[in-house]
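Aim 2, interim progress: modelling of the iron/sulfur cluster-bound target.
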Amino acid sequence: MTNKFHSVKPVSEFKLKQVYIETYGCQMNVNDSEVVLSVLKHEGYTLCSKLSDASLILVNTCSIRENAESKIWSRLDYFRSLKRKNRDLRVGILGCMAERLKERLLENGTVDLVAGPDSYRDLPHLLEGLSGGQKQINTLLSQEETYADISPVRMDKNGVSAFISIMRGCNNYCSYCVVPYVRGRERSRTPESIVREAKEVFEKGYREVTLLGQNVNSYKWKDINFPVLLEMVAAISPLLRVRFSTSHPKDMDEAVVRSMLKYENICRHIHLPVQSGSNNMLKQMNRKYTREEYLSKVKMVKTLLPECSISTDIIAGFSGETLEDHLDTLSVMKEVGYYTAFMFQYSERPDTTAAQKLADDVPADVKNSRLNEIIALQNELSHQSNLADVGKEFEVLVEGHSKRSKLELSGRTSQNKMCVFPAAGHKVGDYVRVRIISCSSATLRGEALN
Ligand code: SAM
Ligand code: SF4
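Predicted structure of the complex, ligand included:
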């Protein structure tokens, strides 16, 4: 919406079109919220930063674990209290929980609108229906929708780093995971639209794009596969860093690493979720790789690209997990030496294969203590990985100021490690050569060399 629009509309109407968007879950949801904002801006909505200013609250939700959904239910209790004070306020639920629970969300008196991840183009129509006083819902999943032609309105704070979804949905059906049910079939977006969007953000001053998909290595559009796409984006400018997430170990191959070798601006980091180190668990999880196959891919990466960091996702206490299985997870972590990890307790999700066929039989206290052991080990591994960087030099892309001091800047190395250093005249968006002088398990500390 333009300023001109503000100035010609009466205040009451202006107030009617203020949207507050709250986003939960993964980076793909963050990017989806940006698509939603783009659709709503065309309808004359502006984004507001205070709930009290909103005429419409949209919550983009996550269903991956039970506690992600519990958070949303408590938010709805709060929104109910806001609606009592403001009778014109409307509340919409978007994303995975909308898709999973559908009409059941409308039964909660607070929710007026429910829109699944493939129905954001329909929001103008749903909002029109809402103004007629009827609750609205669209949870149709699509085989084609990629929102390829919609330029997301960026909501990030730094203006340096942008997310670009290159595909949607998932066909992998890992037995524990709700994603294929709530995000639909896997589909890739046209390479032209991806490159156009990356160029657009680069021209606006962004210096990093992260290409997003549940399994980016299975990206396919005609004869363009993921390594080719990666090179197309990297070729935009050596000043544009390119990241990607997530790589499924069954599909990540040497061709991606060869593309990384060709372009220094493709960041030296691969997020390669292992989930478990036990072959028995991997089979029950339907991950379609063994521990040995996983480790041989890690070896391939380390051989071809020794400076590449590897991170992972781990689930503790999956159905039937024995102490031996758990110890296998700890040993795979040590063998790879992850620099960081996202670690979760298994949460059974309705309708998944695991919920239907496997008992959620690891007691809560055991899940909890195994998760704590995994976290403790990861802290050690992260610290070791950071200690190995002390004395080395890295190029850091500055994203903002450090939490502690305005006089310090923070940004990430190509390996995705957070690095803090005295500002010394540099600013957000700069590439700075930094020598690492100390570290904690979470952060590198350094000094600027240029
Ligand atoms: N597509 C990515 C992949 O396969 O690696 C992961 C996407 S998922 C949004 C992110 C992570 O959530 C998964 O890697 C897994 O570790 C975790 N996760 C998924 N379902 C889970 C469940 N039911 N309980 C606990 N963690 C889960
Ligand atoms: Fe879920 Fe597996 Fe798809 Fe990842 S690959 S989103 S874990 S089903």
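Residues 322 and 362 are 8 Å apart (CA to CA). The chain is about 35% helix and 20% strand.
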